[in-house]
Amino acid sequence: MALFLALNLLFFSMASACGSGKCPIDALKLGVCADVLANLLNLKLGSPPVQPCCSLINGLVDVEAAVCLCTAIKANILGINLNVPVSLSLLLNACNQKLPSGFQCP
After folding, report:
1. What are residue 75's phi and psi, to 5 degrees?
2. What is the pTM of this model?
3. Other CB atoms closer than 10 Å to residue 9's CB: what's the count?
4. What is the dihedral of CA 19, 29, 78, 73, to 10 degrees?
5. How sure is the predictor about 1, in pLDDT bands with cuts at 50, 70 and 90?
6. Taking all residues of the chain, what is their mean pLDDT, rounded to a whole number?
């Protein structure tokens, strides 16, 4: 019985960890990140607040934040044709998050 419970716990924790590669928020909401990214790329004058964008991904682990932003960038939700790795790194840095080592957009 103890072995059965231990295996269940192991499989449950592995299944939960696999879910971290998905975006837990609606990627359409990330459209608010367009102004932040445009400013970072010097496409707009002024300094738009990062709060609306960063508040969406704060609390997510770095991988989840990266997946969410990848989804938004690749779907062109932000309305700008971009270099995905550079844009992703800029947005994550602006929100005090890190691009996970070796991460590539799915």
Report:
1. -85, 0
2. 0.68
3. 10
4. 0
5. low
6. 75
